[in-house]
Each structure stands twice: as structure tokens, then as C-alpha cells.
Backbone:
């Protein structure tokens, strides 16, 4: 089972087992990782599952869809590595994935 790590804004790390086929958002919720609100339940319509992917993982994560890109544009703290965690489905290649959590979700 892949391991993924969420790093809170204050530096606290949460390394968790990630069930293949689940979204990164769901994995965070399942493991009580703070900092992911996921108000829309994963429908790509709230952007409260904002994360920043570590630079060395961007190639493996891929690029956001047009819908995700539009939602990310609404976030004043969007960064080049920003993604919505509900739109990333974990596979075996994501073992070791590390993402940063923002200070606040908007
Ligand atoms: S949970 Fe709402 S956009 Fe990801």
C-alpha cells in the first residue's frame, strides 16, 4: 500500500497508508488529517481540499482538468503546484508522495 505524507502549514507531518483507488482528499479525511475541509464531498465544486504538491512529484501527478483549473483560479493563494486533493486518485506509483497543506482553506 502506498504511503503519502501531508505536511501542515505548521510543519506537522502526517504519513499515512493510502488505499489505491481513493482520492487524496478521502485518504486525508479517513486518517483525520487536519486542514482538508472537502465541503462538496469531492465534486470539484468547493476548492476546500486545496493542497500543494512537492515539486519532485508534479510529473507523476499530472495536470488539472479544466474544471479543476477553474476552481483553483478562485483561490487567492493558488501556487504553480496547487491541486485539489479530491481530483487526485492514488495509485501504486504515488508511494512516497508528499504534499503541503495551506494555512487556511477558502
Ligand atoms: S472536495 Fe470540493 S473541490 Fe475537492
Residues:
Amino acid at each position: 500500500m502506498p504511503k503519502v505524507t501531508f505536511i501542515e502549514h505548521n510543519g506537522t507531518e502526517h504519513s499515512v497508508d493510502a488505499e489505491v483507488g481513493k482520492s487524496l482528499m478521502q485518504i486525508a479525511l479517513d486518517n483525520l488529517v487536519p486542514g482538508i475541509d472537502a465541503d462538496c464531498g469531492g465534486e470539484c465544486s468547493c476548492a476546500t481540499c486545496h493542497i500543494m504538491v512537492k515539486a519532485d512529484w508534479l510529473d507523476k501527478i499530472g495536470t488539472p482538468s479544466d474544471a479543476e483549473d477553474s476552481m483553483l483560479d478562485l483561490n487567492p493563494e493558488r501556487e504553480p503546484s496547487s491541486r485539489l486533493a479530491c481530483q487526485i486518485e492514488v495509485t501504486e506509483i504515488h508511494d512516497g508522495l508528499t504534499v503541503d497543506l495551506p494555512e487556511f482553506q477558502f
